[in-house]
Amino acid sequence: MKTRDTLEEIKATVKQHLPEDAQVTKIDLEGSELVLHSKNPQVLTSDSSIRELAKVLRKRIIVRPDESVLKSEDYARKKILEVVPEEAGIKNIQFDKVFGEVIIEAVKPGVVIGKAGKTLNEIRNAVGWLPVVRRVPPIDSKIVKSIRHQLLASSEKRKEILSKIGRKIHRSVRERDTYWVRISALGGFREVGRTCMYLHTPESRILIDCGVNVAAGDSEKAYPMLNIPEFDLQQLDAVVVTHAHLDHCGFVPFLYYMGYEGPVYCTPATRDLMFLLQWDYLDVVEREGRSLPYPRKFIKEMLKYVIPLEYGDVTDIAPDVRLTLHNAGHILGSSIAHFHIGDGLYNLAYTGDIKFERSRLLEPANFRFPRLETLIIESTYGGKKDILPSRRKAEDELILIIRKTIERKGKVLVPVFSVGRAQELMLTLEDCVNNGVIEEIPVYLDGMIWEATAIHTTYPEYLNRNLRAEIFHRGHNPFLNDIFRRVNGPSKRKEVIDGEPSVILATSGMLTGGPSVEYLRHLAEDERNSLVFVGYQAEGSLGRRIQKGWKEIPMKENGKTKVVTINMEVHTIEGFSGHSDRNQLINYVKRLNPKPERIITCHGEESKCIELASSLYRSTHSETRAVQNLEVFRVK
Q: What is the rounded distance in angstroms from the CA atom of residue 266 to the CA atom of residue 101?
């Protein structure tokens, strides 16, 4: 294995390749990115030398203006409004002096950018500041506003954090005669919930996902098993989060509570959704009278350390590990994490949760990688009988249930995850109402669904091509339809419960807390109503018990336990799942390019992990294993 270049060696290489008139005043690191501060940035941005240097160093290079060339904020604001066409809908212009950036929030970011970035270049040349363009969410979002405010307010701290991360990534390492790659299974192996694994080499320590099992309450099975001998929080180089569902990210703030001061890598959409769901998770825990697993302030602390990556960005996250995120098709911003280890010595991909099928919301999971030796794949529906109906059949079944329920003056309660299933159902219902398939009835959104949907409208670039075309080219945003009505408190919830026939989408998806449980308490005994499960119900959850046929459910109300009788119709529709079924999982592995030498199954009940591993061995002849929690396995 080769020795990693130190920062001083990188600086020497930079000086060899840059033109003298660039007037570079400072060379620094921001995480894995190389930053050049220049008094004449136009020379660098218009010259091919930066592209050539990036190829030599195999790094992304950012050119920031030296503070001396920045125009006044008043002048810059006025100039930007002159340069950018009014149709862009600029709503806010803010300045980040620490990073030399001017942040432009607009309704139409593409107009601010201009063709091939022409308008951005004009702004930069005119005002000196580095322009950063952000979309104004079509649905107002407190979470997006809060995150953007916190990121700006913590600029100085984040700059310091990024510099420390950069030095750690580029620390000197020695050549070794032997090299190995190991994975420790810390949660989510032969089970669903608390997904967590620990990738370690002689040089690096990386945690991949760090979730909670919300169905396990405060039991020992709720959190990842971080107390293994080989795990040392102080030596941890990075945390990689594949997506925002709590079983993959819910325990990340705990790491900061315990003293971690390193980066979290994920997509920008995952960052925002993760913040939302972690905050909501603590709300639910608090309402249930349980102890918080970590103080709230550590969710905000975590935000300072998040380094967002777009799909396809290749990023150094440790001296011997490069990370690339690819679309997983599961929820907005969900990723397959590909690790390029030991300067090309070994390549590993972890699917997170994947959907290998285009949905109304997202494109199917990526299956092409530059190199791949080991694949770690989810097994939620990996059992022999886990063949899900088609999306069309699932939609037809849902429409029939809604029609019959409305005809008998009942209400349809759909417990949903606020991210993913909720938006899929919104698109389905909006389409059905628009095309007269079902009558126009109110669809109430309760819990974090409204905020999650607002975040979806903030990042339309992650949606599938048909939906993007609908929004951008035909001017029709389905999420803005008048049938969708927000429930924003107990009084409105009571109106919905007592009111007209309707469809209610409410969190949580497994009835483990949140408003869906409140609706169930009031609607369960009326046989006119329907309960429809559209997502996975984990073992131990209230949703799974009802699926199994429980008719009497003990529920707490005003501190007292009351038995609620389930008289409402109970339905399970599998085809809306954001997970691949057995056939899709096997087809995904068959389509992988290149073919992996080894396949590890995880994120599924024990029988499903084992059955999928066995089937993949027969169909691919690769080495396959259904690893258990606390098992340590060497892949190289």
A: 22
